[in-house]
Amino acid sequence: MVQNVATQVAELEPEDFHLLSGVEHGMRFSEWVAAGKISEFSRLDGEEVDYRLDRCMDRELVERKTIQYTGYRLTFEGYDALALHAFAERETVDGVGAPLGVGKESDVYEARSFEPLALKYHREGYTNFREVQKERDYTADREHLSWLYTARKAAEREYETLQGLYPDVSVPKPVDQNRHAIVMERVDGVELSRADLTPAQVVGVLELVLEEMAAAHAAGYVHADMSEYNVFVSADGVTVFDWPQAVSTDHDNSDELLERDVENVLGYFERKYPNETPDLDAGALAGALADDSFDGVAG
User: Fold this and answer.
1) Least crowded by CB within 10 Å, which of 166, 192, 265, 283?
2) CATH for 94-185?
3) CATH 1.10.10.10 region(s) of the chain?
4) Which top CATH class is 190-290?
5) How high does pLDDT run on average in the chain?
6) Would you give the distance in Å from CA 243 to the centre of its chain?
7) Partners of 112 in the beta sheet?
8) Which residues contact 155 (CB under 8 A, 6 or more apart)?
9) Which of 215, 219, 218, 195 is nearest to 205 (CA)?
10) Which fold has domain 6-77?
């Protein structure tokens, strides 16, 4: 698990952020930035670079590797620090609290601000870079790719999608985005995978999820990774989250991806609530969602 860097950010000085930004800039060209190049990228003199590298390495914001040369790169904590610093300067976030969720491709924390918010750091590409490169179309046109680029593009894609969906679709309200991080509305509820629905609730919740999928399609988007792990259930209804892999309805494979999403949702309900879930055809249901003719699943 990547550590919460809020404490380290409070201790950092402006020159430390110049150093981190310089390493970030250098990673556009090489995974490991040659020590001799950091002064140029950060606009700090050599002695200052050495001092700042030591400070940032002590805080595990930068790591070093000796290959044909001595190179440095940001850790995810270092990238987190740059994003959090940007949010603080914009007065988007006052502080960072407890983790809300930790996954393979993102970490989410409470964010203290003018309203309850959530801070999401994308982690795509750091540990499963090859799989992400194959699956995400926003990496297809890049010859040199780093996990910074992959995670940033994921955050940009998700933020743009949330902007396109909110408020017509029940998704977290997008607030701000920088690098690989998004600030959004904090949504209360229970993950569908952990919810214990009563028999009387099953069909209603299933219909609510499908209605949000239909609304997203009407807004021009297919989630493309729907499952019981990215739906919150609450007394107010359902909220669909995690949209970095979403595709436009103009995408060549949007119909197939929509049908796969429907199959995933139906499959979950059929496995967990076999007696209460109606017998439905995923293909026909996906077609109804796409052409705005969905009118429920009861009966």
Assistant:
1) 283
2) 3.30.200.20
3) 6-77
4) mainly alpha
5) 92
6) 7
7) 95
8) 120, 122, 177, 179, 180, 181, 182, 244
9) 195
10) Arc Repressor Mutant, subunit A (1.10.10)
- The residues pairing with 151 across neighbouring beta strands, listed in sequence order, are none
Classify 118 as helix, strand or coil: strand
Phi, psi of 202 (to 5 degrees): -60, -55
Helix (H, G, I), strand (E, B) or coil at 230: coil
- Beta bridge partners of residue 191, listed in sequence order: 232
Assigned token pair, 142: 């890049």
**pTM (predicted TM-score):** 0.91
Scanning the chain, the segments in alpha helix (DSSP H) are: 6-11, 14-26, 35-42, 46-58, 76-89, 129-135, 147-165, 199-218, 254-272, 282-290
Number of residues written out for the chain: 299
Give 42-65 pLDDT, tens digit per residue: 999 999 999 999 999 999 999 999
CA angle 34, 35, 40 (to 5 degrees): 90
DSSP class of residue 25 equals H
3-state SS track over 143-177: CCCCHHHHHHHHHHHHHHHHHHHCCCCCCCCEEEE
Q: What is the pLDDT of residues 157-197, one digit of tens each?
A: 999 999 999 999 999 999 999 999 999 999 989 999 999 99
For residue 80, count CB atoms less than 10 angstroms from its CB and return exposed for 0-12, middle for 13-18, buried for 19 or more.
buried
Beta bridge partners of 221: 248
Residues whose CB is less than 8 angstroms from the CB of residue 46 and which lie 6 or more positions away in sequence, other chains included: 39
- Where along the chain do the CATH 1.10.510.10 domains lie? 190-290
**Cis? peptide before 244, omega within 30° of 0:** no
Tokens coding 182: 């998004």
b/e string for 19-49 if b means 16 or more Cβ within 10 A?
bbbbbbebbeeeebbbbebbbebbebeeeeb
